[in-house]
Every structure is written in C-alpha cells, then in structure tokens.
Amino acid sequence: MKWRVTSSIGGGKSYTAAAREEYAGIAQVLDDAASQLSGQATAWSAAALQLGNYRASGICQLTGSGASGLAAGSDAADFGIGIDHESLPYHALIEGCDNAAVQCQTLSQGLSAMASLLVRAHSLYSQAEHATRGAMNSLMEGSGTILPWQTAAGFLALATGGAIASSVGERRFNPLGALSSTAWAQEGALRAASNHVNVRAMGVSGLGAGVDRAAGILSMGTSRLVDFAQGNLLRVERVEATRPVVGESHSVAQSLANLQRLAAQRRDAAGASANGNGSNLDYGTIAIQKYRNADGTLSWLVTIPGTDGKPDSAFGWPHNLEVMSADAGQRMRGDSARMVAEAMKQAGIGSTDQVALIGHSQGGIVAAAIASDMKDSYRIEHVVTAGSPVANHPVPHSTWMTSIEMEDELVAALDGAANPSDEHWLTIRGRALPEPSGTSPAINADESCLPGAAPAFVNPFSSAPVEGAAERKESTHHLRYHQAAYRNASDLGSPAVQWHERHFQDIVSGKLEETSYWQGRMASGPPTAPGERIGARTPMR
C-alpha cells in the first residue's frame, strides 16, 4: 500500500476581504459549471438508457418510397403497397450518448477538483476551519473537565473502534487506527487533562491555565527524577562526522531532507557502527551551518532532530515537559534547550547574525523556546517545526514560524491548542490517505478470466506521495510525512507558502562556509576537563 498526503494551509499571507471574495467567487463559478456538466452527464446517460429500452421494444423507423405518397391516416396494406422497415442505429447512438456522458462527467470532476485546489491554495475557508476547530476543542475540554470519567470512556471507545477498523482493514493487528479516529478530539482532551493537573496544583484558578502550565508543574517532578538517573552536568562538544550527512541547503525542502538524514544517524547508529558505516553522529547531535552572504555578513542554520531516547542524552523523553513549560526560565533550564543554546554559543553565532532554526518533534519545541526566550541574545529570523507542539510558545512577531503538522500524529496535539493564525505564523496540516490502487487480473473456478482494473487517476496537485512509507499504516509522526505535506502545499502554488519559503531562502542564500556537529551528554559529578560542560542547572524551587 502506498500513502499520499493532502495538505491544508492556515495563516501566512492574508488577503483583503475583496480579494478573498473574488477568489471565492471564482471557485463558486467553477463549482457551478461542474454541477451543470454533471447534470448534462446524467441527461446523456438517461438518453442512452431510453434508447436501450426502444431497441428492446422493437420500435423501428418506417422508410421506403412506396409509403411516401399515402394520405394521412391511410393504411398502406389497404393499397397493396409494400413497406420497408429499417431499425435505427441503436448501437452507435447509445455509444455516442455514453461517450458524451463520460466526457461531461470528466470535465465536471476536473472543474470541481480545480475549485477545491483553488480553495486550498488560497486558504479561503481557513478562518472558519480555525474557528470550528477551536469550538470542538472547547467542547471536548468542557466535557472532559466536568465529566472526566464519562469522557475518558467515550474517548477510549472511539480509539478502540479505530484500532479495530484499522486491524480489520489490514487483516492484522494495528492499533494506530486509534490515532486517526480520535484526531479531532486530541487537543481538547489534552486541555481537559491539563485542567485537572492545574486545579490540583493551583486550585480553581488553574482552570483554563493551559497545557503549558501543566507541563511546567509535571516537569518539577520529572526533572528531579531525570537528574537522579543521568546527572545534571551537561557536556557539549563538537564532533566530526566520518562521512557527509547534512548538506548545503537553500530551501525549506532541502533543510527538511537534511533534518531527516541527521535524525536517521541516531536511529541507525548501532547497526551502522557494527557494519563500519557509522557517521559518528549519534546521541543528541545537532548541526550548525554558517553561510557567508554577498555583503560579507553571516547567516546561520541550526538543524535540531527530535528525541533520541539514549540514557545519557540531553534529548531524552522526559526533557520534553520542561521545554513545553509556560515559564521561560523553566524552558531554558531544560537540558535539550541548554544544549542547543550552548552549541550556538560555541559555534560563534553573533547577536546580529541572521539565524534560522529547523527542528522535528522535541527539536522543534527547543527551536520555538530559543526563539521565544533568547530573542535578546540572537536574531532569530525564521523557525521551521515539524510535528512539534509549539502553539503556546510566546514566539515574537518578528520571528517567522512555519509549522508542519499531521492530523493524527498525536505529538503535535500535545500543546492542546491550534497554532496562532497570522501573517508570520504559517501552519501546514497534512492528512495521510492510502493511494488508490487497481486490481490484478484473476482466473475464476470455471477458467474464465476476470480482467484487472487500472488504478484511479490521482491529481498530482491534490496530494503528494510519501517516500519510503511502510505498507501498513504507521505513525505519521515520522518526518517523511511532514516532508510530503510540505511538498503538496508547495505544489499547490499557495502564496502564503511561497512567501514564507522566500523569507527562509533569503536567510540561507549565501555561500556555505562550514557545517559543524555538536553533541550533548549528561553526566554526574565534576567535569573531567574545563570546557566540557556548562554546569548544572539552577535547582527548581
């Protein structure tokens, strides 16, 4: 089974009311023309059926010169005149009607698809969709706060149904269908859960305080456990790659590809090292690239993969809570945020140099935290996140945000909120669907042949293929799904996407001078040598 991703676009470049109305009018004209053509197709099909009925009933056309001179109402047999009967060319007429019906229906579908693409490319109804999503989140939050057990039971039943449907469809157990069936309720459910955490810690004032506040409360306990397990001394050092991994990039798509390659080094480190093909880039490794602009100034691109789960890594699972906190100091005390900030300092990024950051999952959360909390230290111009819950981060308006999310990945919904929708914050939301497939020829028991059906035509602009996807349904949190979502949004020709793409390209338009790799590990006890650690974080109060 192949998978494709279709994208919707929210935020980014906005239109005047007049321009939006004009685009909507064009889309309506296309839809109306599609409806008329669909009606014509129905009429032609009805004509073909009627002709078939005529042929079956034996209705013929009277011809022959002997009958041409008879008076009206006369019976030719009374005059002994022979009459020739000739059947109408029913086969040709029916075939012509069927062909006309197919042509009209094809044109109708094409115009309807064009109207849909126009609506998606220009985000004509994104405001209404954003409002609807917010209303659904509020409804789910209210239900889960007032009736927690009943809501949890309903959510569990919905998830179970999705898992069963997915397993039946694939004819093997696959629980990931639970994510698809609950995608619409995930953010609201997280908000409801956060209300219970906040009320326990803050009293009634905790109602509506948000997921970020709950994350900060929970991280007060988890951070101590993490410090006990892996220590609180962070060592950040530059490492050399044994082979090229992150190449030169001058676009968001190229940077996403580099991000995936760097993340793959973490996943495949053990097997690659055993085969002698390792790159020496495992653990919490990030890449920092220095670009020299034509005017002599410097620009930087920081590539930050997500959680690696290694026991002494600064990018472990529990570190997510701290960098999602509502408190700026708590966010920057998170080990992953400290690690990236220290690497940026050691790499030599200046306070006036343009900086772009791109991150997946926890890497995107860290990028948003740095943009929010280090705006006085660095000139963070653009942040690209993929599958990262960053809606609650107070990113300054001067920083452009391009967020890519999948509808059923769950991770991006952990912030319990939709991203802000304005000119500088663009959100691309992808939805993964199986690609239509044909059927193979078959031989029946009586040795008759059943011809196969060709796969349905897929409009190349309606969706983008997921390269390297598994045959069965898998978690769409994998970066390849975000890459497909961005590719489809770009193929649509969306002005909002193009606007953000140009802004990102302007930052990395110079000549690449250097790519450095930085690794962060946690340790207990004193450092072994000066410069190998940045010390312990301030204890939480």
Automatic annotation (TrEMBL):
List the taxonomic lineage: Bacteria, Bacillati, Actinomycetota, Actinomycetes, Bifidobacteriales
The UniProt entry, under Gene3D superfamilies, shows:
alpha/beta hydrolase (3.40.50.1820)
**For the region Disordered, what residue ranges are annotated?**
520-541
Give the organism, scientific name. Answer: Bifidobacterium subtile
Q: Which InterPro entries match?
A: AB_hydrolase_fold (IPR029058), PGAP1-ab_dom-like (IPR012908)
Question: Sorted alphabetically, which SUPFAM superfamilies does this protein's record hold?
Answer: alpha/beta-Hydrolases
Ranges for domain GPI inositol-deacylase PGAP1-like alpha/beta? 326-403
What is the protein's name according to its record? PGAP1-like domain protein
A molecular function (GO) term: hydrolase activity, acting on ester bonds
